[in-house]
Amino acid sequence: MSIRLRLTALYGGLFVAVGALLVAITYGLFASRLQAARPRPPDLGRLPVLPEGLGDPRRVLDEALARQRDEALDQLLTQSIVALAIVSVIAVVLGWMVAGHALRPLREITATARRLSTDNLDERIGLGGPRDEIKELADTFDAMLARIAAAFEAQRRFVANASHELRTPLTVQRAAVDVALADPEPSLRSLTAMAVRIRAATQRHERLIASLLTLARSERGVEHYEDVDFTETVQTVLVGTNTRDLKVVPRLRPAHVRGDPALLERLAVNLLDNAVRHNTPDGWIEVRVRSEGGVVTLHVANSGPAVPAEEAEALFEPFRRRSAGGHGLGLSIVAAIAAAHGGTHAAFARPEGGLEVTVSLPARVPCRATAAAPVPVRSRSG
């Protein structure tokens, strides 16, 4: 049974029930009114003398009045039932029409959903009318379609870029092998050169696959949460990062979060690697960690080439490169890890060159109060 039919039956049933109740109340009030309005018996001396055999004049009069009252009540009940039946049929028809009109937007939503495919995700319902529950449902459906379309488009770009990136080292490997096979008598030097090229391409392939796996793991979310000393994690990453001749300025304050320790460490590693890779000789890197207002913030700023302000946020998209080298997955992994931990990310282009990246994560209050004193990390260069 369709919703329209069920709504019509509900409307009709409620109308018949209310109508029957109204008829019963009317019948009862009318009957009591007739009983209360019963005329006083007249003086027997004034009644005409009835022929013998007809009985007592008062009894005859009472019986006539009772018959008249019963006939009036029967007529009232019959007419009320007939009127209720006619009006009920009209109510059912009107209920069917009203239900169809009310459910028309739902049919439009259903038709749109049936027409959707990967080729027309840009189609929307665009329901007009007053702001009611069905309008809100249609707007929510449109917003969901917009998110799905954006996700499909991002997936298409990701697959296309990943395919290109995976094909490049394979092409290099095949070219190196073809060159070696083209020489009927290859020398040890040429074979060694081929092996070096294949090894470099293989390493690039491994790094790309590792980055893709990390990105997929980050987008899947955090499965097991642990208490993490985020300041210690960043400090460990700072010590293990090769900053070349760059000046590192750490400002680390105690901060604790809950999450996946490996992913949080990868977040810090990618931010530091990005700051080192896209820097200038004798440049600098500033790393700040603080916990304030229930939010842990990791701020990494670095000198470097100028970045257009409108392109800063786009750097978090997969395979977006600022320069040659790398795969363009570092900051996209940072964004995915931050989102998996319920955090946010932002990037700002510095007017004098370089980039500022800020990642905010929900803080975890440690069991024991920790003084908000800076964690000593030695500034270093080289």
From TrEMBL:
Q: Which GO terms describe its molecular function?
A: phosphorelay sensor kinase activity
Where it sits in the cell: the answer is: Cell membrane; Membrane
Chain ranges of the HAMP domain: 100-153
Q: Which PROSITE patterns match?
A: HAMP, HIS_KIN
Q: Which SUPFAM superfamilies match?
A: ATPase domain of HSP90 chaperone/DNA topoisomerase II/histidine kinase (SSF55874), HAMP domain-like (SSF158472), Homodimeric domain of signal transducing histidine kinase (SSF47384)
Record flagged with keyword Transmembrane helix = yes
Enzyme Commission numbers on file: 2.7.13.3
Q: Which InterPro entries match?
A: HAMP_dom (IPR003660), HATPase_C_sf (IPR036890), HATPase_dom (IPR003594), His_kinase_dom (IPR005467), HisK_dim/P_dom (IPR003661), HisK_dim/P_sf (IPR036097), Sig_transdc_His_kin-like_C (IPR004358), TCS_sensor_his_kinase (IPR050428)
* Topology versus the membrane: Multi-pass membrane protein
Q: What is its main location?
A: membrane
Q: Where are the transmembrane segments?
A: 7-30, 76-99
List each copy of the Histidine kinase domain by range.
161-365
One GO cellular component from the entry? Answer: plasma membrane
| Key words, A-Z | Kinase, Membrane, Phosphoprotein, Transferase, Transmembrane, Transmembrane helix, Two-component regulatory system
Coiled coil: present as a keyword of the record?
A: no
The name on file for this protein is histidine kinase
Record organism:
Actinomadura rudentiformis
Classification from the root reads:
Bacteria, Bacillati, Actinomycetota, Actinomycetes, Streptosporangiales
